[in-house]
Amino acid sequence: MELTEKHKEYWHKNLVITAILLAIWFVVTFVEGWYARELNNVTFLGFPLGFYMSAQGSLIVYVVIIGVYARYMNNLDRKYDVHEGEDA
Amino acid sequence: MATVTGNRSFNSQLKKYYSVYTGGFIAFVIALAIAEQVGMSRAWIGYWFLFATIALYATIGIMSRTVDAAEYYVAGRRVPAFFNGMATGADWMSAASFIGMAGTLYLSGYDGLSFVMGWTGGYVLVALFLAPYLRKFGQFTIPDFLGARYGGNIVRSIGIFAAILCSFTYVVAQIYGVGIITSKFTGLEFGIGVFVGLAGILVCSFLGGMRAVTWTQVAQYIILIIAYLTPVVWLGVKHTGFPIPQFAYGQTLQKVGDLEKKITADPKEVEARGLAKAAASEATAALKDPVKAATDRRAALEQRVAKAKTDNAPDHVQKSIQQALDNTPTDPEKAQAYWSARRNLGANANPPRKHAEPFPGATEQARNTARLNFLGIVFCMMFGTAALPHILMRYYTTPSVRQARQSVFWSLFFIFLLYFTAPCLAVLAKYDVYSHLVGSQFAQLPAWAAAWRQVDPALLTITDLNFDGIVQLAEIAIGGDIIVLATPEIAGLPYVVSGLVAAGGLAAALSTADGLLLTIANALSHDLYYKMLDPNATTARRVTTSKILLLVVAVIAAWVTSYKPGNILFLVGAAFSLAASAFFPALVLGIFWKRANKWGAIVGMAAGLGVCMYYMCVTYPFLRDLIGVTAPIASYQWFGMNAISAGVFGLPVGLLTIFIVSLLTPAPSREVQALVEHVRYPNLAGDIDTRAT
Hints:
The structure holds two protein chains of two kinds.
Chain A: H1 5-34, H2 36-39, E1 43-44, E2 47-48, H3 49-79
Antiparallel strand pairs in A: 1-2
Helix pairs in contact in A: 1-3
Chain B: H1 2-37, H2 42-63, H3 69-74, H4 81-92, H5 95-108, H6 113-137, H7 142-150, H8 153-186, H9 190-240, H10 249-265, H11 267-286, H12 290-310, H13 315-326, H14 332-343, H15 364-385, H16 389-392, H17 401-419, H18 422-437, H19 447-455, E1 460-462, E2 476-478, H20 482-490, H21 495-533, H22 539-561, H23 568-582, H24 584-592, H25 598-619, H26 621-627, H27 647-664, H28 670-680
Antiparallel strand pairs in B: 1-2
Helix pairs in contact in B: 1-9, 1-21, 2-9, 2-21, 4-9, 4-17, 5-18, 5-20, 5-21, 6-15, 6-17, 6-28, 7-8, 8-9, 8-21, 8-22, 8-23, 8-25, 9-18, 9-20, 9-21, 9-22, 10-18, 11-14, 12-13, 15-23, 18-20, 19-20, 20-21, 21-22, 23-25, 23-27, 24-27, 25-26, 25-27
């Protein structure tokens, strides 16, 4: 079937949110890891920050990223009328 | 809308069942705790945990038996997001995570966190790039998707080969873990332990395929998380005074840092470090002829005992030398173990590593290489997560795309619970060792240390090197696995909690092995047999073939395991690198780039896998010996990267090759482009239907 403009817009929005979340993921993973030594000079909740991020902080960000994505996309499905039937 | 109410009541029914189950399990543990107080022996507590949990998994397996294809391959596609999350958690967390992770962190400090980050952050990639799209596609296996998207049997065949290669590498590591746990906690022999565990794996996946595996994995997740958190919370209250120590161990980490400084400067420790170095080189030489070396050592020690007596040396010194003499065995097997354990003291020649310091090294260059390797492992573990077929398969089982997205959230949440606890446990255990074990008298060791040094010298060896009767850190050689296994005793909990931990470790290993064996059997029966060899096979025949293959693969895996092919962490890491190189580029480009075509996928997957395998073969010692590479490892290494992170090179090569070759060859057909559009939208009016039945 032919895709309408609305469909294309939906996919575009999906790509935008994916790119934004991926950028956050990249920062808390690789940028954080690269500068871990420097971050350790800062203390956070009693932890050296570099250690804290790799042991806990980045993990929390990952969980949040996935939660935000699921919520955003599930709403977008409805808005653009590409959602599935009710499924509880 | 009959299915809507059907799904809802199914979901609430599941919640009821598993709540009752959790309550029942806790009651079972309490009953055993009472039995222990009135005198049940430790061995019996071990047996109860082993056989009761395996019987439980078997019961679920028998109740979920099926011959329906959709039930067998994808659990009927009605696993709610929440429960699929738990099942994925159990599927994901293996013996290496449960038993090994905290120990790795204890031994390597910050640098061990690469696995913690890699094995959680990978789910971001699963969520953003794969899970919802694979669910929409809705068939049975990962090669299914590759076959449909790129067309023809060549891509599917490469997919089958890669799926089997990485799953098999991984399953061997799991069965090994099962053997170790059962033999350690029940006293059964390693080989028998392997087969008891294997029976537990088989009754479940054999009868009911994905359906049985899913519901067993949910049950296994509940056991493993209770088992992991209970002792840590207890230990946390002891050291931080706070029941959620994961948020409060920063203070403990600081105290560990202070103790590290104190130990580094302590003259007694400096002396012991020198002696540890000498003892290790003595042991290396002694291993050529363990018995003779032990006899010589006994003679030397006898002289020292006599000399100490005539010199009127202090009482505790005389005792220490006498004890060293008593602990030196001349029995061939024990002497071998004795010297091997002493050789491990070589790691104590240096001051303790600073737990929170990233990438330590002697020179700036060494530190930078350590950093690159850290990021390399993070990279491979993440992309491997998003490419391992046994994990991706789980997202075929949710009722909808919507729930597939939520399900990734629950998966990571449940995994996170264990992974953010492991670094905390490592710090708490370290604090306990540095503050209580170090400095205690040999005559009055903490109870757990006294018990574990009897169990296995590879897990814990404490030797009075300077004969002062006091434990120095440099006199302790510790094996990583002891951290999780001994935590209940370090925390001062009754033995029943140790049994619980063993049951948790077993659940972790069994659940992962289940998922992996199913992946291999499905690749063979569904992809190879049904899709390529005999497309007219009836449903019953396909499922039966799968069951028979499952049995064959399980036996082969157990047979390979009985050779104890060492280094579990490398086996696991290798599986991730291979999966990342072979699958990730083809899967993701297949969804996000319509222009990717068959030839791009064929050449790209082969190139990625090829580069990854080549790099492992020339840089990993075991494989180098196997194929006879003799030139030094460094001359093959790129940027000083270790073999485990070979995917750092395999994945980009694969990605780039698919890109270039696709552009050089004709664009895929209209049907394939329609398929790509199909998977991108959860629901399209007038859409094609790709779901398999």
